[in-house]
# Entry
Amino acid sequence: MTIEQKVEDAIEDIRPYLQSDGGDVELISVVDQVVTIKWLGYCASCSKNTMTMTGLTEIIKGLVPEILEVIEIQ
# Structure
């Protein structure tokens, strides 16, 4: 399994929670152990975006320890 597939699996773990709040996340890329994501829907502008980003980062790094950083684009 590739690192990108592992990251996708990690995102799938949190996706139901994001969708229950009207949001979602899209994996843009995994390059040099850095994940780039884009928030979709409500979570893109919600006041809890920082907490959500922290939680997503912890889940990804916990399940895919090779990942060094998770960044978001607008």
Observations:
- The CA atoms of residues 5 and 30 lie 10 Å apart.
- The chain has one domain: 3-73.
